[in-house]
Amino acid sequence: MDNNIQNVKLQKYELSKNSLYEPYFEKDNCGMGFIANIDNKKTNQIVKGGIRILAGLEHRGAEGYDSETGDGAGLLFEVPHEFFAEIVPNLPEFGDYGVGNIFFPTVKEEFEKIKSIIEETVKNSKDEILTWREVPIKRDAVGVQAQSTMPSVWQIFVKRVNSSKDDFEKNLYILRRKIENAVKKANCDTEDKFYITKLSSKSIVYKGLVKPDQIENFYIDLQSKKLVSSYCLVHQRFSTNTFPAWKLAHPFRFLAHNGEINTVKGNVNWMKAREITLSSPNYEDIKELFPVNDEGWSDSANLDAVIELLVFSGKTLMEAISILVPAAWEKDHTKSEDLKAFYDYYSGLMEAWDGPAAMIMTDSRYLVAKLDRNGLRPLRYILTDDNQMLVGSEVGTLPIKPENIVQSGRVKPGKVFVIDLEEKKLYKDDEVNEKVLNGTDFKKLIKDKKNVNDLMKEANFNYNKTRDLDDIYNKLKLFSYSREDLHILISRMAITGQEPLGSMGNDAALSIFAEKPKLLYSYFKQLFAQVTNPPIDPIRESFVMSLRTQLYRKANILEEVPEAGETVVLDSPIMDNKTMEFLKNYERNGKKPFVLDITFKPTENLEERLDKIFKLAEDAIDSGVKSIILSDRNADTENVAIPALLAVAGLHHYLIRNKKRNEIDILVETGEAREIMHFALLIGYGATAINPYLALDSIEYMVKNKLYLNADESEIKNLQYNYLKAQKKSILKTMSKMGISTVDSYRGAQIFEAVGLSTELVKKYFTGTVSRIEGLTIKTLEDEVLNNFDDAIDSINLGDEALYVDGEYSWMKEGTNRILTPDAISKVQDAANRNDYSTYKEFAKLVNDQSQHLLTIRGMLKFHSDRKPVSIDKVEPVEAIMRRFVTGAMSFGSISKEAHEAIARALNTIGGRSNCGEGGEDPKRFLDNRRSATKQIASGRFGVTTDYLVNADELQIKMAQGAKPGEGGQLPGFKVNKEIGATRHTTPGISLISPPPHHDIYSIEDLAQLIFDLKNVNEKARISVKLVSEAGVGVVASGVAKAKSEMILISGHDGGTGASPLSSIKHAGLPWELGLSEAHQILKEHKLRSRVTLQVDGKLKTGRDLVIGAILGAEEFGFATMPLVILGCIMMRKCHTNMCPVGVATQSEELRKKFTGQYENIIRYFRFISQEAREIMAELGVTQLSELIGKADEFLEVSKTPKLEKVKNVNLEKILYTDKNSESPNVKTQNQDFKMENIIDRKLIKLAKATFESDKNNVQKTVINEKIENFDRSFGAMLSGEVARTFGGYTLEDDTITLNLEGIGGQSFGVFGAKGITYNLTGQSNDYIGKGLFGAKIIIKKPEVSKYEADENIIGGNAILYGAIRGEAYLNGVAGERFCVRNSGAVAVVEGVGDHGCEYMTGGRAIVLGETGKNFAAGMSGGIAYVYDKNNTFEKNLNKEMVDFDELNEVYENEIKTYVKKHFNYTGSAIAKEILNNWEAEKQNFKVVIAPEFKEIFERGEA
């Protein structure tokens, strides 16, 4: 077995060395929970209950290629003293010994070596080893893959000798860390062979690479009835990583975690920097515990390690987790001032561990559950009448009789849920807060915290400095500003306060290939959230976002001292010139900030100059300086500005390596930074705050010279304010793409990949950043900087009156090189119009031949084959190749009806697939060749009806879009005409917002659930997932394959879009060559490639592109930009303005008349591409495209003749990597197993046979009575699909099929419910009730025998009625977060909701008969919400950005009364009854929430 472990380790090493695989990007999500007896009664039933709960969560896990090997599962419960007393001689009393399960190598020599190290370490501690015990296991209870890496499992028993009772648990923690460090120091090869699950006198962990239904059989101990405990934590893992690792299973020592810590790289770096100042009287020698974190551990393991450190330093468990994962406190009106002071104090000491997270943990006294600040994971609980508490990702995992339930609730966003086993109680919020505060007066500790604006006022600081215009102009040249920088970026932001938009993607050369040197910033690409965690909406959910920045922070998180509260607060990390000037002269403890000049002489060596700068900074820090200002203001004709990013990142990592980064602010005064990506990178690599002085000065320059800004000089300050405002908003958006809420957490998190930087450059200056194709060295970077400097000097000396033209945002003759030039467009359109292949070949040569002007990665690749060429007659025909073609998702709304239908016709004619995009599709098109074979499901869910879903050959889940990954979109009301409104099932004239995330996909297991939903509603359709190329996409693709997707699309960064922020078009995502190759490599390595088809898109233009895509692993090929070009697009990049001059991307009736495109031209173009591909295939000696797929080592090689010096260091070997020993196929060869044979819907369809077979003019009704459980997921989806196929999705009479149900519904209960079906459930359900509802009626009522008040308890989970279109829902209880999110037209009555209720709602009605959470109606543009506000507290929770209150009138009254009556009749609701019985008085308690634009339409009777 150890050989297998060694092989896996070697396999990972070889893969990361030679391929595009990066272990850092491995992710996991999970299902978890705990069961506890609040009265602290210890029973075997608790442990057995934990095992049962684990089995009930099995669907939230995953399996790799070996179906009997899961991703890991585990239990944590009380040390079973009675059990151990029978088998361990002379066992001391409970609490006087510690025990732990340890994973050992199976090779005897390695085992003995580590065992002796442990024994020696214990011998030198305060206590002693009592005995060892080999844990009995049943090896064949787990899968073959799990067996191949199975460790030897032993228990160590440590007897308390010299430790006091109070210190024993802490000393066991210290002992464990000593052992771990000693084993590591001894150079034992232990990475995956040795692991201490936990060493404790209180609790024990049993875990491993087991599935939930295997754990009891595998660990024979768990079968004993002598195992008693009052609690049991459980965890089931779903990992994107399929390298087997026993240690990665949860729980850890305290924690089980479901979610993702997005900021872990920064958190680990900051903890490393922090170690030098950590101290606590509770630790004799704290260095024994270092390193606290390790970048090789998972995010959960790292978080758990810091929890341990904090708890054993004397903090309560509640305090510790609140420090690390704080609530969104700054804008929360519900939090006490004392609690806000706690968060404020620790915000100056510790950045948040940020990301979607549900956590459960215990120190054996307290059982704690905690949600992230935005409530992005589910965490439900049920309390029974015998004081048994069940907490978990779902309800229903352990059957509980309804009459025994006394409370049904949820853990709220940011909240801490606590059971105290010693006090035998469940804490209320104020009691939790007391434990968090832990007796400290935090208001006193922060009394001297000051905002910089207040400090400037106190000092009467004035700053009215004006710059010489010639000096500004020369500086603009020296910092390589272009006309576009001023015209397209800075002036627009100064006018609007918004980042400018663009369209049609990016076809400019990558910076490493650009002939004119580019700024260093452009060599980086933003990473973004897709699948494993969600992006955030920074606009609609702004209350969880924060740019608050603090100077003079302290770092010892273990002690509470006033000095740590004396920070200087900035509202944003981007400062104006006045603030920078003030801070330069601000004294703290007798020291001003140390200003470091970051320029160098042209004759100096850049690297040597940087080394001097870093040493000067270190010397200043040694002298007591706490703030370093890196300034390039000295840049002039004799001094060259060092790239600010290089200086910041280099200094940041230099100080970390020298253990001096701690408590040091790095401020940047730079003329170089002007656009959002620049600021994001500077912060991401450690800058505390930035002053873009030249960008601000340029506004003054433009105003005074009447250049691009037609404004009075008195408006300069306001324009500068707008510019900074735009940058701040864009920083929030950039952070939110990765799911990060606070700038403190983003700082130093390095959420980027470098494209075109050498390993040596990255290692020294950008340590830890992924860079996979090599590129610039420090020397070639210096050359680039000096080339730009020389150009600037020449321009200054010549007196050039204009800045240079860059052509970065649209084609310019003298600008940057592009692929789609006007000449290329003209040729391909002419070729298609005249059906002239020779003209097409001229076009293809322009695009393919990059020998003189390199533009893309594939431009460096050339074909190679040892096979003899074959006759082209033997190559498969163009018709066979074209069947592999699809078009990219373009919605009706983003492009015109004429263009949309022409594309569908072309693809249907050739046997390919068009993709309708996210805007729905007119049902009339289902019946002819205008039908889009692929129907897309995007975050807005517009037009996603049951009819739409069953009329598809493929259902595609769009996780991200190449031109704007991690972002949503908005279709303004003026574009939503009657036809678009009807197709999207929304009200014409109402703005439509697509959220950044799918609100039913916050993790990989959520994606698996949506895939299951879709497969149920349309079993014949292929389910696919669209991902965007980024570092780590291969690992994500592995998770997506395990989630049962049948096709994965890898989309390139350069794809087009109707509208996107320019920073996203230019700086987010990667070329498809990288993403496709990585996905293919990792899927093969994990033996998952055979399960999925791989598709690629992103500015594919020629047959050569197609063949290279195939060789890198693609089986299918997507085209979007080029079909639009063939239809007439001339790349004016005006799509986002609705002013497309050729009628392709507009809804203007006048402009649409100019559309002249013919679908036949698309077919001609596709034939040309295919013919070119055939010619290449013939030359390579293959007759079928399938022979090329995934064979990069055989058919590609790198061109060795780069024209540019900087390109000579580029290395594409990782892209071409092929594991020659792999037996995994290169194409899809097997179907996914959805395990749908025995789902309950098949039974329902049989029971409703009479309905389906009856005359459609006289449909027979059916009543079905059933019991359901939480594993009955997607209940009703298959039934609804059958209704839609048989009758049409919206034709049956109400109650045609009535389902009377009892029990607890699983996830997606009633999903896509079709009209005519009534779901009548007595019980409760989990997340996504009524998602995509299309006419069905859902009734969920509390069982009469249950002992709790319905309007105070949870009856359904999160995202209920997400994307609902029609129908009704009546919930006799409280719903979780995001109730009615993106509701288009359903009517819903509920008795209370969580945060973000009615978010993005565009139609329908929501009647809330109780309390709401925060941020109600954010982004709500349509529909009406009626909120029963008896206590007059609702207004504080209402987001008034798009809605307001309206006066109650007769129309509103009648609607409210009608639906409240229905609610009472269906559910027997007590609160409904009370309201109806006192109607005249109670109706005044209803608040009417409506958007002004919808109100106008409603009052006209049009909604």
Summarize the structure.
The protein has 1503 residues and is of the alpha/beta class. The protein is built from 47 helices and 51 strands.
Notes on the structure:
This protein is an alpha/beta fold. Among the domains are: 464-798, Aldolase class I (TIM Barrel, Alpha-Beta Barrel), CATH 3.20.20; 822-852 and 857-1209, TIM Barrel, CATH 3.20.20; 1256-1499, 3 Solenoid (Pectate Lyase C-like), CATH 2.160.20.60. 33% of the residues lie in helices and 16% in strands. It is built from 47 helices and 51 strands. It has a ten-stranded mixed β-sheet. Helix 16 (483-496) crosses helix 22, helix 20 packs across helix 22 and helix 29 packs across helix 39. The longest helix is centred in the middle third of the chain and has 22 residues, at 716-737. The mean pLDDT is 93. Its cofactor is FAD; FMN; [3Fe-4S] cluster. Residues 30-422 form the Glutamine amidotransferase type-2 domain. InterPro entries: Aldolase_TIM (IPR013785), ET-N_metabolism_enzyme (IPR050711), GATase_2_dom (IPR017932), Glu_synth_asu_C (IPR002489), Glu_synth_asu_C_sf (IPR036485), Glu_synth_centr_N (IPR006982), Glu_synthdom (IPR002932), Ntn_hydrolases_N (IPR029055). GO terms for molecular function: 3 iron, 4 sulfur cluster binding; glutamate synthase activity; metal ion binding.
Helical content stands at 25-40%
The CATH topology label of one domain is TIM Barrel
Write out the strand line-up for the largest beta sheet, numbering strands in chain order: 42-43-44-45-46-47-48-49-51-50
Using the alpha-carbon principal axes, give the shape.
globular
**Oligomeric organization of the protein chains:** single chain
Count of β-strands: 51
Coarse structural class: alpha/beta
Tally the helices.
47
What percentage of amino acids are in beta strands? 15-25%
Mean pLDDT: 93
How much is the radius of gyration in Å? 32 Å
Main beta sheet strand tally, sense and closure? 10 strands, mixed
Pfam family, one: GATase_2
InterPro entries: Aldolase_TIM, ET-N_metabolism_enzyme, GATase_2_dom, Glu_synth_asu_C, Glu_synth_asu_C_sf, Glu_synth_centr_N, Glu_synthdom, Ntn_hydrolases_N
Keywords: 3Fe-4S, Amino-acid biosynthesis, FAD, Flavoprotein, FMN, Glutamate biosynthesis, Glutamine amidotransferase, Iron, Iron-sulfur, Metal-binding, Oxidoreductase
GO molecular function, one term: 3 iron, 4 sulfur cluster binding
